[in-house]
Amino acid sequence: MSEGDLAWGVLGAARIAEEQVIPAIRRSGAGAVVAVSSASGRAPGYARRLEIDRAYDSHEELLADAGVDAVYVALPNSEHAAWVEHAAAAGKHVLCEKPMVMGPAQLEGVERAAEAAGVVVAEAFMYRHHPQLQTLRRLCSEGDLGDLVALEARLHFDLDRRDGADDIRLDPSLGGGSLRDLGCYCVDLFGMLTGAEPDEVSTVFSRDRPDGVETRLAAALRYGPVLATFDCSFDAPFRNSATVIGTRGAVTLTDVFRADRHDGVATLVVEDERGRRELSCEGDQYAEQVRAFAAQVARGERDEPSWDLTGRTVRTVSRLAATVAPT
């Protein structure tokens, strides 16, 4: 199967699929979206609005559609792993919204299901595919920054609490909370840059709801001699930045996770012995994510470095989650 021939189905009539992933599939040249499913009855209207051919009232019906080659899973966090396994068993390749699983045991189950079915499964961390990350890795590997000393990241947005009762990001039973919705990006970036899992982790957090979901969280992690910190919340105007500090210099990425908010243009501010300079990178991270997945399907094999990074992130987030579990 060539990269442009994929017929996509979408599990879940979600906003992120409508606003980001479905348009990205169409921009990417990596296939077409032919079906959508929703257990809440929203699929027909969603399909009409987005000009998708087929709408199903159950995910099982979509997975039984022989005309679907791959699916994008856009369901609540707590449902991801089970539906990835169901999709794999149905012979579908799977791109799953982050976090793909709620813990290491589920990751092992997903991996077994994919291997048994001979399909490709990948996690949708779209920020990994923006060219600014390549530039950052080059700066680190070529010694411009010296040896790593510290990593900093933050990701915040203001979640409208007027609709909070219905928002899955505020439902702990569905895998909600600021750590799994936002902090996982920071953890993933740290794992990418260090190539390791932390030796130590600790958190401080805030719960301002009776159901106990954490809405603000800060964490400190140690990767050998490298210190890493991040903070995230549902309570502030949008911010997404990261700073890498080395023995010879530092670089700040001003839109590390959501460069798409500025038409794909990202700025890296480098401060080293040569002074201060800005580097600009432009890319379509959502479309590049789709193309990278389609390339894996065409090759018939997953991208091992990306899968290894997913494993590091899953295990680290699980360690952090254990510190905020209700007592």
* N- to C-terminal distance: 50 Å
Please mark out the parts with pLDDT under 50 across 5 or more consecutive residues, or reply none: none
Describe the main β-sheet briefly: 8 strands, mixed
Number of helices: 9
Shape: globular
| Overall average residue pLDDT | 94
Order of helices and strands: EHEHEHEHEHEHEHEEEEEEEHH
Secondary structure: elements and pairs:
Elements: E1 7-11, H1 15-28, E2 32-37, H2 43-50, E3 54-56, H3 59-63, E4 70-73, H4 80-89, E5 93-97, H5 104-117, E6 121-124, H6 131-141, E7 148-158, H7 178-194, E8 200-207, E9 214-223, E10 226-233, E11 235-246, E12 249-253, E13 265-272, E14 275-282, H8 285-299, H9 304-324
Parallel strand pairs: 1-2, 1-4, 2-3, 4-5, 5-6, 7-10
Antiparallel strand pairs: 7-11, 8-9, 9-10, 11-12, 12-13, 13-14
Helix pairs in contact: 1-8, 4-5, 7-9
Write up what this structure looks like.
- The protein has helices at residues 15-28, 43-50, 59-63, 80-89, 104-117, 131-141, 178-194, 285-299, 304-324; strands spanning 7-11, 32-37, 54-56, 70-73, 93-97, 121-124, 148-158, 200-207, 214-223, 226-233, 235-246, 249-253, 265-272, 275-282.
- It has 327 residues and is α/β, with parallel strands linked by helices.
- Helix 1 (15-28) packs across helix 8 (285-299), helix 4 (80-89) runs parallel beside helix 5 and helix 7 crosses helix 9 (304-324).
- The mean pLDDT is 94.
Question: What are its keywords?
Answer:
alpha/beta; 327 residues; eight-stranded mixed beta sheet
Brief overview:
The chain has helices at residues 15-28, 43-50, 59-63, 80-89, 104-117, 131-141, 178-194, 285-299, 304-324, and strands spanning 7-11, 32-37, 54-56, 70-73, 93-97, 121-124, 148-158, 200-207, 214-223, 226-233, 235-246, 249-253, 265-272, 275-282. It is an alpha/beta fold.
